[in-house]
Fold Phosphomannomutase.
Amino acid sequence: MATLTCFKAYDVRGRLGDNLDVGIARRIGRGFARALTARRVVLGRDIRASSEELAAAVSGALIDEGVEVLDLGLCGTEEMYHAVTFFGADGGIEVTASHNPMDYNGMKMVRAGSAPLDSATGLAAIRALAEADDFGPARAGGRRVDVAATARAAYVETVLKFVDVAALRPLKIVVNAGNGAAGPTFDAIAAALSARGAPLQILRMHHEPDGSFPNGIPNPLLPENQPVTAEAVRAAGADLGVAWDGDFDRCFFFDAEGRFIDGEYIVGLLAAAFLAREPGARIIHDPRVIWNTRDVVAQAGGTAIQSRTGHAFLKAALRDHDAVYGGEMSAHHYFRDFVCCDSGMIPWLLVIELMGRSGQSLASLVAARRAAFPSSGEINFVVADPAAIRARVDAAYAAGARGRDETDGLSLDMGVWRFNLRSSNTEPLLRLNVETRADRALLDRKVDELCALIRAEP
């Protein structure tokens, strides 16, 4: 029995021809059907060059298990989440590697009710079945049904319920789809907004889906990928910029000056907006950068609840605590009223409504929060021994820490500053985030100090 190393903490991610290929995709498809005793499964894919072939393999495998495959074709991961509940399916699979390098692909999977899958809720069983590869002959009754048009129309209607079009004011918006899957879905939402009288001027860039990614892998969280959107915002005199990753389940913002807005400030902004609608509600956040979110939620009279990093864990926490909203600093945003899943399209709609209601720019909406709780942004390191690096950092700072948390990696609260150091769930990286209380100079010093310690020779 060969071990499948493409299975991660909460999804499948692997290098093509190494630990993921068409044969493995077929085994995962059949294992998914068996583990979930599925009779109806939603299937979607992103624009990567390998995604169509892998999706076809998964579809064939599901059909061999007697499953009715509801095919969405090219779509965002969130469209798959929505369709699972909309069609009452037994589960869903999106073939995507999101923002990973060109030679990667993978799958994001959910069970009935769009509920997340992890090792405790079915992922381990799928892996075991796929590794055993003992499925026997094909079963009768399987078929593929094209539901793309119906699914997208229903999805657009759900997304638009989050915004009051009457509250919108004229705005010029630059949108960067990164040649990923976002373009067609954004166009459907924009057309529906226009039909309802939304006074928006949209400037599109890198909009056409193209699996060769002629403008680079769409990952706006990386600092080197941000200037292209920032420059377009400034050149157009736009009010804001919005950019997405490859499967557009993450949404990134730029203010009118082209400044990138770090994810935790958007989390705080949306948390406050939901608490204004539902006083006393619960808000979920991840452990990487926490002070701004906790302060916003406390001031608004809500309850902040910490979850382990990762979409499966945030979704589970949202359900377990009946939270109205959850957010990660990495730009994943989760909504109770969007099948308790994450969406990259809902956040920009909420932000432009906030701008309309307040009459403020995006920069002014977050200015006080950025000053109160400056943060480093995520800094990534490729290291040979992450555990040894973490132990080295722990030894250097633990004695002076006022608080310690190991929900996800190592978090030490040093009083006026704090850091989180964790291994990525999806990539061979060590990730660092640092924050302070209203002290940008201290932040810069501590970032330099920690980076030197992490990079030091053993």
Notes: The mean pLDDT is 96. The chain has 14 helices and 21 strands.
